[in-house]
């Protein structure tokens, strides 16, 4: 039976343990944005023994490059980008305490294994509905690498950000279980 959960960042493993692929989540709190260019720079910092631009322990990263905000709005359209471009960097961040990734699309086996190993989750944002996703963003502030433009690291404060569990801490993968459940329902 699929469930809906209300979660607040920073996230603890105990917050994520009940989640299963297909469950829905309303996420509130601080979420950081980072795409591939920012991830490459984060790896450079780590390789140099330096701190990341935000606390990674229990953090949620949203793979998004938002459009400029309109007057009176905290952010422009904020739909997810394809997560696979971050796969090379993700296991290292999960090992450092990253708890949640938000994006769209399948992930590599290495990422799936690291999600389970670290008790983390990968959540889907609604692709193609960037304006809808932006409604949940209460504030947005660039905190690192403004030269990256839309790919700069931002600190978002979100309220009831609507998400779906794609990868859960138990090895569940909605990209596998979803089609299987659909096919079973046809019989």
From TrEMBL:
Sorted alphabetically, which NCBIfam families does this protein's record hold? Answer: PRK06842.1, ttdB_fumA_fumB
Pfam families, per this entry? Answer: Fumerase_C
- Which key words are in the record? Lyase
**Superkingdom assignment:** Bacteria
Name this protein carries in UniProt: Hydrolyase, tartrate beta subunit/fumarate domain protein, Fe-S type
Fe-S hydro-lyase tartrate dehydratase beta-type catalytic domain: from which residue to which, for each copy?
7-177
- Similarity annotation: Belongs to the class-I fumarase family.
Which SUPFAM superfamilies does the UniProt record give? FumA C-terminal domain-like (SSF117457)
Q: Report the GO molecular function annotations.
A: hydro-lyase activity
Q: Does the keyword NAD apply?
A: no
